[in-house]
Design brief:
Strand content: over 45%
Number of strands: 11
Oligomer: single chain
Largest sheet: 7 strands, mixed
Structural class: mainly beta
Number of helices: 0
Radius of gyration: 14 Å
Order of helices and strands: EEEEEEEEEEE
Shape: globular
Helix content: under 10%
Length: 127
């Protein structure tokens, strides 16, 4: 069993920055990919970014490219999401997820790729 705990959310003004963290624990934690998703009120949960746990290869949704950066610390079993130039439309609950399927850049944006999810952390961007 894998547990994921997000932190770092909060209230920030538009144009500001936040860094989310997701700490993973479990007896045998060795995912192929870690991802970040977000869900705004009344909307579907959507893909934000993913990282290949071993190679560090990253994927982003178009709306965050150039503003968000995903990274990982393998020794700490932690994945980060640095969010810069935040916009009001970035307001959502952000979830991290761990997947064990073979890395596929076309599949890592799908919720079904991931086996484990955190409880989410709220990010609110005031305009």
């Amino acid at each position: 069993q894998v547990q994921l705990v997000e932190s770092g959310g909060g209230l920030v003004q538009a144009g500001g920055s936040l860094r989310l963290s997701c700490a993973a624990s479990g007896r045998t934690f060795s995912p192929y990919a870690m991802g970040w998703f977000r869900q705004a009120p009344g909307k579907e949960r959507e893909f934000v970014s993913a990282i290949n746990w071993s190679s560090g290869y990253t994927v982003y949704t178009d709306s965050v490219k150039g503003r968000f950066t995903i990274s990982r610390d393998n020794a700490k079993n932690t994945v980060y999401l640095q969010m810069n130039i935040l916009k009001h439309e970035d307001t959502a609950v952000y979830f991290c997820a761990a997947g064990r399927g073979t890395w596929d850049s076309n599949l890592v944006s799908l919720r079904t790729f991931y086996a484990y999810w955190g409880q989410g952390t709220q990010v609110t961007v005031s305009s």
